[in-house]
Design brief:
By secondary structure, the chain is α/β, with parallel strands linked by helices. The protein is built from 14 helices and seven strands. Helix 9 crosses helix 10 and helix 12 runs parallel beside helix 13. The radius of gyration is 20 Å and the shape is globular.
Length: 311
């Protein structure tokens, strides 16, 4: 779930595993800048239905919609609602679904969205326009030390979560932590730089995932895929975070699986309804990472839906 450029990550690999065909319908569950969607529509005379809960992404899709006409529809909604949103439009089955998880470059590059370590802006991090949703500012300035530490550890794999949480609580006792650079500099002051990654990267990632409930959203969306895909339909997922990768790995596991990981109530194990196309995750080439460093943590997994899950 790293910050990444406008260049779609592992585009050729995604096209290979999705294998778009004429007269078929595909879902781009994470429209973003539209890079995957454009490639699908250019690769075949197909239809694409794209989802994004960010109103800015939906608004920016107008040029692409004008170019491809009725072959492209863009829906402003979280991908966890894709089955419902397609159902009310009379679409019950599709031949492929693609996810490119994480934050988009357009969100990162706008300081007012509060996602970036490089640009100063308010601590927001909401991907959608839900004004009732908790923001990063609320987490940083109102949650207690243990709650913050738990978020950083669970969603960011941050081993120094307690140290960072303690520093946040101490700092806000003197002055509100209001901007992204204030938070980034604070974390950097108590964390050694151990490589090219900014010391606050995991902190920002964890808070963003929590604010947007990203893991639960993903787990719910995967269950919707079983409803929507036709037998032989393809599921392609690009992740940037170990927790997301664990969820899709378990979902595609041919052995017994609960199919909703630890982020949803327990469901009795069953056999996966997918045949894996990737026994191991596909990773970007050395050349791609050199051209686009934001691709460095990407992993791709794919499967073919065989039909109803077996008990």
């Amino acid at each position: 779930m790293s910050e990444r450029s406008h260049t779609p990550v592992m585009l050729q690999e995604v096209l290979t595993y999705l294998h778009p065909q004429d007269c078929e319908t595909y879902v781009d569950a994470t429209f973003g800048g539209g890079g995957y969607t454009r490639a699908f529509l250019e690769a075949a005379k197909c239809q694409v239905i794209a989802f994004d809960r960010d109103p800015d992404a939906v608004s920016n899709a107008k040029d692409l919609q004008a170019h491809f006409g009725e072959r492209l529809s863009v829906i402003e909604a979280p991908f966890s609602e894709m089955a419902t949103q397609l159902g009310v439009r009379g679409i019950n089955k599709v031949q492929g679904i693609v996810f490119d998880l994480g934050v988009s470059s357009s969100q990162i590059d706008r300081p007012e969205r509060g996602f970036s370590l490089r640009f100063d802006g308010p601590l927001n991090m909401r991907m959608d326009a839900d004004l009732h949703k908790v923001t990063a500012h609320t987490v940083v300035n109102q949650f207690d030390e243990q709650e913050i530490a738990n978020i950083l550890y669970m969603y960011g794999d941050e081993r120094k979560s307690r140290r960072i949480a303690k520093a946040i609580v101490m700092a806000r006792g003197e002055q509100e932590i209001a901007t992204t650079l204030q938070l980034a500099d604070l974390v950097k002051s108590v964390m050694p730089a151990l490589g090219p990654e900014h010391p606050a990267t995991r902190t920002f990632q964890a808070i963003r995932i929590f604010v947007n409930d990203e893991l639960d959203e993903f787990s719910l969306a995967l269950k919707a895929c079983e409803q929507l895909l036709t037998p032989g339909g393809r599921l392609v997922v690009v992740t940037f975070h170990s927790l997301e990768d664990s969820i899709i790995k378990e979902f595609l596991n041919p052995k017994a699986t609960s199919q909703n990981s630890r982020y949803l109530p327990y469901v009795a194990p069953k056999q996966s309804s997918f045949d894996r196309l990737t026994k191991k995750p596909v990773v970007p080439s050395v050349d791609e990472v050199r051209r686009n460093p934001r691709a460095r943590s990407a992993k791709l997994r794919a499967g073919i839906f065989r039909g109803e899950a077996r008990p």
